[in-house]
Amino acid sequence: MAPQAEPRLRGVVKAIAVIPARDAEATVGEVVRGLKRAIPDLPVLVVDDGSADQTALKAREAGADVIRRDVNGGKGAALQTGFDEALRRGADGVLALDADRQHDPAYAPRLLAALDRADLVIGSREGDRTGMPWLRRATNTVTTWFVSRLAGQRIEDSQSGYRAIRARVLRAVRPRSTRFEYESEFLIAAARQDFRITAIPVPTLYNAPRSHIHPIADTIRFIRLLFRHWAR
User: Fold this and answer.
1) 147 assigned to some structural domain
2) What's the angle, vertex CA 141, arms to CA 135 and CA 142, rounded to 5?
3) Is residue 54 one of the residues assigned to a domain?
4) Cross-strand bridge partners of residue 21
5) Is 23's pLDDT higher than 90?
6) Is 45 a residue whose pLDDT tops 50?
7) Is residue 2 part of a domain?
8) Which is higher by pLDDT, 131 or 46?
9) For the chain, what percentages of helix, strand and coil (3-state, to nearest 5) are there?
10) Where are the beta strands (DSSP E) in the chain?
11) What is the average pLDDT score of the chain?
12) Is residue 88 assigned to a domain?
């Protein structure tokens, strides 16, 4: 269910939405249009990460600016490309969300408004995991526990890609990872630099096409991330 009343955008003056996308022609347009309905004047930047379909075309038709990466570099690399471009355009805050409809754009104003009390805001699905596959629930619980330990504070839903981030965090935090573990590394690095991290509840949506996550390869990358940061 969408929020009953949208708060004012107090958290930032100029925000840009960044959407990493790969082979998302069936959903990216709906995500962009949803953001435009929620915040009509919000610039939307889609980073097409080597798609083999019409992701870039559908995003442009919906009103987004598009950066096209000819070779797939991973979600983390796409996010970093979008963050760098947002900073270049003078944004003082960024809203990051996925292109596959797993994040309800109606909650975008709440995430951005929460930046008036934090440097990084996570859209947390922990309050309601209805519809989340059991394996995904278990994986999220385990990875969130590890990320919290490495961050030195409790992190809610470390695997949620629905986030609002202040520009000062984007300038200070540059993870080495380039794929799905990028988002975990971002939280660990931000927490260790004493940025304020909070979360607001968002619904769990699982009506999206197949995931691009590779269970074995991405698990190995996450384990390597743990060892790298535990050593520090």
Assistant:
1) yes
2) 90
3) yes
4) 48
5) yes
6) yes
7) no
8) 46
9) 40, 15, 45
10) 15-21, 44-49, 65-69, 93-96, 120-124, 163-166, 197-201
11) 85
12) yes
